[in-house]
Amino acid sequence: MSLSKHKYFPEQLISEILKRLPVKDVLHCGAVQKLWYSLIRTPMFISLQSNYQKLTSHVNPKYILFHNFDTHELTVRFDDPQCEEYCNHAFDLGSASAWYAQSNGLICLSLMFDSEHHNNPNIALLNPLAHKFKMPPHSPLSIFTFLETEWKALAFGFLPEVNDYVVEQALHTVEIGVYSLNSNSWKKICQDKVFVDFMSTNRSVFVNGTAFWVGFNTDVSYQLVMYFDTKTNILGKIKVPNWIALHERQLCNPLILPFGQSIAYFVEVEDFDAEEDDEDYKSPHLDIWVLKDDMIDEFSWEKKMSVSISEDVWAQVLGVRNNGDPILGKLNSLITYDLDTHEPNDFVDRLTPYSYDEDTPFFFISPFVETLRLLDTDRHN
Asked: Is residue 215 helix, strand or coil?
């Protein structure tokens, strides 16, 4: 049957066909004719396509997102040994220190930590596959309080139960602003406890409706993980593993990343007090601790892996694959560590992930899924 007779197909049947396609192909189909263009931009179809992708994620190709901090280019690649490029999207943040987070196919950007841009609290949401962006309304948090507070933090994540995306702002005062994409509105929550003196603002983690940040206190010898649960509006703290607390002076580059339905605490451990020829010297190694929710309001840590780091491996974790395997840089390639065997495996051998002359790697890598969200913004223009 020719395309000219497609109008005799029920719209429901067209939706059932299109929802099975990758997002790039769905967008190409939208150029076939006006009916399909309008259909794929309806909230109903976007939700239908999203639900189908979630149900079939175990058989559909999985992706990982490479964020190049040098060029600001986003590249989506297949999460397999070949790691071939699926698509890329270059954008100009206007600043190398722009804050960035991604969840379920959308990216959140902000200059709130950039003093050169006057700590601009505005936030932008981006869909790199659909080439669409949205500027949420201004946060209810006071701009003056925002600029003067001792620390501020951001988080961004997806709530699968309600098919919604949320942005969280947290201030030392303590005020928390939560933005919902579904309602395109903010709510303000006030707390009466301040758990940390300083926050690591460069990275946050959002899983199961909870945002996590690494915090620091000046009067204790160890770090804390601070969290905010959007379902209960509870702000709390989690102590890092006891072993880490006792050896804080030996740690470098602590990092938290998503790990399945939990988080993992990655840390490089180096024995600064011992020489290499000492009997009790231990070579630098990478430890991975996974957070366990044992019961209500109680957490514990389980060591998942500890591996020695060779001289030609950059110990800082660049990200994780969909199966949780950490990704590290090795010379001009990338390697992963198998969580079962604890052995390194070559992953990508044709990328230069970082420069040894730089303090930070060029890439941050994270699991990525496709979505059509923000595509329906066309309907309101």
From this structure: strand
pLDDT in tens, 28-39: 998 888 889 999
**Cα(91)–Cα(71) distance, integer angstroms:** 9
Let me know if 279 is exposed, middle or buried by CB neighbors in 10 A (0-12, 13-18, 19+): exposed
Structure pTM? 0.85
Percent of the chain topping pLDDT 70:
76
Q: Residue 82 pLDDT > 60, yes or no? A: yes
Distance of alpha carbon 185 from alpha carbon 177, whole angstroms: 10
Residue length of the chain: 381
User: What is the rounded distance in angstroms from the CA atom of residue 199 to the CA atom of residue 194?
Assistant: 11
Spatial separation of the C-alpha atoms in residues 326 and 283, rounded to whole Å = 19
Instruction: Please identify which residue in the block is written with the tokens 């460069």.
Output: 202
H/E run at residue 252: strand 251-259
Residue with tokens 């000492």: 278
Distance (Å, rounded) from C-alpha 250 to C-alpha 227? 25
| pLDDT tens string 158-206 | 998 888 999 998 888 788 999 999 999 999 998 887 778 877 776 789 9
For the packed helices 43-55 and 11-18, what is the interaxial angle rounded to 10 degrees? Answer: 40
Q: Which pair of tokens denotes residue 143?
A: 């701009």
Whether the upstream peptide bond of residue 174 has omega within 30° of 0, thus cis, is yes
- Cβ proximity of 158 and 104 under 8 Å: yes
Cα four-point dihedral sign 192, 193, 197, 201: negative
